[in-house]
Write a structure and sequence with these properties.
Layout (H helix, E strand, L loop, with lengths): L14 H11 L4 H18 L8
Helix pairs in contact: 1-2
Length: about 55
Amino acid sequence: MQYPSENLPKQEPKLLDQVRGKIRLKHYSIRTEQAYTDWIKRFILHFGKKQIKNK
């Protein structure tokens, strides 16, 4: 028997989730994590929410 979730394509985590994961892996402080993610949010809002794909 197959479960419905097995048929779904694997999705990469969103950008901010990836950033948080890397920061936590490096054992940075929670305040550093918040500062970095806030800067990224402001950057995205300023330049638009265009999806940039890696080559």
